Amino acid sequence: MRLRVDLLPHGNYPDVVVIIDVLRATTTAVTYLERGADALLLTATPEIALNLRTEGSPYLLGGERGGLPIPGFDFGNSPVEAAGQNFTGKTVVMNTTNGTGAAHTAAQSGKHIFLAALTNAHAAARRARAAATEEIAIVCAGTDEHVGLEDVYAAGVLAEYLLAMGEFSIDDGARIALTVRRNGGNPLEALGSSGHGQHLMRLGLGEDVRAAAGLSTSTIVPTLTPGDAPDGTLKFTAG
Fold it and tell me: Phi and psi dihedrals of 113, rounded to 5?
């Protein structure tokens, strides 16, 4: 079994893909499902999300650009904000600067797509291992097409869990992620010292950084689910 870590999305995924955007899209996605959402629709563009909002629409919109809520959306991309809501029976449409695009890249070729954060790291690793037949690719969303320390650190956490489960051949990306994990301090130190973590704190969103640093606090794994979904969207449900 191969274990691969892409420090940025590249595509050409033959088997299982685990998307990480720990600050904050995948952390928020886990929270929406924890708070009762029936499904998440990850869109390719903000415009697709906004066009889904029609009179009587069952959808709520959540997303951001540059860390700030998108005009016309109901919510930003905040796990703290999401944790204070009840989404029972709702479908949340998400579009973010990096994470939702990474999911669309993975879905072009991957057989099984999961969303992972630090908060569901152990559960996501177990799901990935159970589904894989030849390769697990952990894909870091990054920030504006640049490598993000926080995502690489989280990838190292997942890689550690996976290596504890069995034998893998690992690539250099996995070695880098494991090194960052082992030398990056505790999760809050790693996330808080990252460029994007510092950006969010400057925006007054330090509570989101702290929430995203929780380690294996959830057993929910957002899972790409075949079936009816509007054009330009990927449907994820709780796994």
Answer: -120, 125
State how beta strands 233-238 and 39-43 pair: antiparallel
Tokens found for residue 221 = 């794994």
Contact (CB, 8 A) for 8 and 137 = no
- The edge-to-edge listing of strands for the beta sheet with 222-224 is 68-69, 59-65, 91-95, 39-43, 233-238, 222-224, 112-116, 16-20, 135-140, 2-6, 169-170
pLDDT digits (tens, 9 = 90+) for 178-212: 999 999 999 999 999 999 999 999 999 999 999 99
C-alpha–C-alpha distance, residues 175 and 3, integer Å: 10
Interatomic CA distance for residues 182 and 171, integer angstroms:
17
* pTM score: 0.96
